[in-house]
């Protein structure tokens, strides 16, 4: 086993599939002890069996502050510290603004934006103590908004803004903040879309290119968190070579 992160402890949200799952496995393979949080406990138990190192499955709902605080507490109680927080949990429910089901807007804001904020708030005292790292999984949609993805983009723009403010507050205390902005990745994210037209458009877009894999983003996260302490990789924009829009 590579021990690049030997002795480090990581908490990954949204770890039951996609980028979160791949990142948890990559961090584990690099020697970290990993707490993997998500809503699908059965998948997390399978992930614990697959991990090359010690992995703690945690049932976690990032929209619930008590659940987030409990996950951080359980991580520290189990492993004695917290060095890396990977905020990955997210949902994408694209569709037109006119006639939208605004409960879907609430769900995206609560999951993507507030959820990452809650996790930072709960984890920050431990990260300050360890001069740790916050990894925020944003999106190319956090740079360029497009039609039919207004609220999703707003949450990702919000993550980017919050992360820059956080960076300015904590960098002098040794905490590094990393924003990862993936383009089109082959994950379950597009299956959340309920609008049939938008779901078909996402499928067509995926079929038009060689999409990124979750492991590609996990490798980028691993690169950022294994840099020496004087190096802060604050932003990583990663698109498929074939992606032309956003």
Write the layout of secondary structure elements.
Layout lengths: L8 E4 L5 H12 L3 E6 L2 H10 L4 E5 L5 H15 L4 E4 L14 H29 L2 E5 L12 H21 L5 E7 L13 H12 L6 H12 L9 E4 L8
Parallel strand pairs: 1-2, 1-4, 2-3, 4-5, 5-6, 6-7
Would you give an account of this structure?
45% of the residues lie in helices and 14% in strands. The chain has 246 residues and is an alpha/beta fold. The protein has a seven-stranded parallel beta sheet with strand order 3-2-1-4-5-6-7, sandwiched between helices. The chain is globular and about 50 Å long.
Number of strands: 7
Poorly predicted runs are none
Please state the structural category.
alpha/beta
Q: Can you give the mean pLDDT?
A: 94
What percent strand?
Answer: 5-15%
Number of helices: 7
Molecular shape: globular
The end-to-end distance, rounded to whole angstroms, is: 37 Å
Q: What is the ordering of alpha helices and beta strands? A: EHEHEHEHEHEHHE
Cα-based radius of gyration, to the nearest Å: 17 Å
């Amino acid at each position: 086993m590579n021990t690049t992160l030997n002795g480090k402890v990581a908490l990954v949200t949204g770890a039951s599939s996609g980028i979160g799952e791949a990142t948890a496995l990559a961090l584990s393979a690099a020697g970290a002890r990993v707490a993997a949080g998500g809503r699908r406990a059965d998948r997390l138990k399978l992930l614990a069996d697959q991990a090359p190192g010690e992995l703690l499955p945690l049932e976690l709902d990032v929209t619930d502050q008590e659940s987030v605080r409990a996950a951080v507490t359980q991580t520290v109680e189990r492993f004695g510290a917290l060095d890396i927080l990977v905020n990955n949990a997210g949902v994408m429910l694209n569709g037109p603004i006119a006639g939208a089901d605004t409960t879907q807007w609430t769900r995206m804001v609560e999951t993507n934006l507030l959820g990452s904020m809650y996790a930072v708030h709960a984890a920050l005292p431990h990260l300050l103590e360890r001069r740790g790292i916050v990894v925020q999984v944003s999106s190319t949609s956090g740079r360029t908004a497009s039609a039919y993805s207004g609220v999703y983009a707003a949450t990702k723009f919000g993550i980017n803004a919050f992360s820059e403010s956080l960076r300015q507050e904590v960098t002098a205390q040794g905490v590094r903040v990393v924003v990862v902005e993936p383009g089109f990745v082959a994950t379950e994210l597009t299956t959340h879309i309920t609008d049939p037209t938008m779901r078909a458009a996402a499928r067509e877009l995926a079929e038009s290119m060689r999409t990124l894999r979750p492991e590609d983003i996990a490798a980028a996260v691993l690169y950022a968190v294994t840099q020496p302490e004087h190096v802060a990789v604050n932003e990583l924009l990663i698109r498929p070579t074939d992606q032309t829009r956003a």
